[in-house]
Amino acid sequence: MYAIVDIETTGGKYNEEGITEVAIYKFDGHEIVDQFISLVNPEKDIQEFVVRLTGINNAMLRNAPKFYEIAKRIIEITENCTIVAHNASFDYRILKMEFDRLGYDFQRNTLCTVELSQELIKDENSYSLGKLTKSLGIPMSNRHRASGDAMATVHLFKILLEKDTQKNIINKAIKYFNKKYEKEKLKKMIEKMPETLGVFYIHDSNGNVIFIGKHNNMKSELNRVFMKTSKRALKIQTKAQSISFDTFGTEILVRLKYYHELDKLSPKYNFKKKFILLSDDFNHSDFLIIDKGRVVEEHAIILVENNQIVGFGHTNLAFQEQHLPILRKLVTPIENKVLAKHLVKSYLTKNSVSKIIRF
């Protein structure tokens, strides 16, 4: 579970700043499940340049709650969460400083979307939130206000999670169950799994992926894996410490994601399927496949250029789908292009998709 945070401050000397606004979106890796947004009375004046930047002035904060009045809510919404922020060291330092003033030891793990973006989205001219969201076609409103910046960070983090094929983000943030209660552990994992189409990952105590599954009802399939009594299945059940999953709205992305991850991660307890690969070219060399997304306002996409699968991902704006440079940055790159081409060609011969846009 993640708490995606953005904080606006008064400015001023290091460790003497005060919070003027806070926004926190509790995010389960798929959707926002809780949120807290509030102006804060910092009990000190705001620097002039900050007023010009954020639009927040002293008069606006006169009747706002002081930090001690919202501290309990911040503790509750971030409990058992990894704090995610764009330049996380700043936002976490400010929160720690305010809690220290109250005599409370606020401790949370953190992830920084600047560092993750530098790792997963290469060759950007700037990794500032404004420049990065513009480059990726992410909708942005209320810039330099906590709620707008935090929501933009949510959209960015979704893209980063999808691009994180090595599952490093999951491994850093993962919480483990007590090994003493194995049956309860497996039951909790099954309860967490949604009854939807997708790909799921079983992790060991080190966070490594030991098994990948896919199904149109992931809960049913995970239950089946945990009910098996073969030697391989029993080893999976013993070593399983946590699960993660990716939901999809279309089978074509499930197949691409599943076989791409098998190829990339080589989980210990999966059997690799051997294909007789189709090598024929597509009818068109450059096009975009659009199909059903995970939610109503979203599309699943597969980008094809020069008769090769460039990558797959999701969009939520028609603007993104109309600009190739943005599409190239949004999609998760495919390394095994021969296998990807086979999977897409074989799917399209038997199934229809929402739309195909030729370039």
Helix/strand/pairing class, anyone?
A: alpha+beta
The biggest beta sheet reads: 5 strands, mixed
- CATH fold-level name of the largest domain: Nucleotidyltransferase, domain 5
- The N- to C-terminal Cα distance equals 39 Å
How much of the sequence is in beta strands?
15-25%
- What's the name of the CATH homologous superfamily of the largest domain? Ribonuclease H-like superfamily/Ribonuclease H
The CATH architecture designation of the largest domain is: 2-Layer Sandwich
Helix content: 40-55%
Radius of gyration: 23 Å
Mean pLDDT: 89
Number of domains: 3
Strand order, largest beta sheet: 3-2-1-4-5
Text of the CATH class of the largest domain: Alpha Beta
Unreliably modeled segments: 174-180
Number of strands: 13
What is the H/E order? Answer: EEEHHHEHEHHHHHEEHHEHEEEHHEHE
Secondary structure tally, helices: 15
- Rough outline: globular
Question: What are the salient characteristics of this protein?
Answer:
globular; Nucleotidyltransferase, domain 5; alpha+beta; five-stranded antiparallel β-sheet; 359 residues; GIY-YIG endonuclease; single chain; 3 domains; 22% strand
Question: Can you describe what's shown?
Answer:
By secondary structure, this protein is of the alpha+beta class. It folds into three domains: 2-163, Nucleotidyltransferase, domain 5 (2-Layer Sandwich); 176-265, 3-Layer(aba) Sandwich (GIY-YIG endonuclease); 287-358. It is 41% helix and 22% strand. The chain is built from 15 helices and 13 strands. Strands 3-2-1-4-5 form a five-stranded mixed sheet, with helices on both faces. The longest helix is centred in the middle third of the chain and has 18 residues, at 146-163. The radius of gyration is 23 Å and the shape is globular. The relative contact order is 0.09. The model is unreliable at 174-180 (pLDDT under 50).
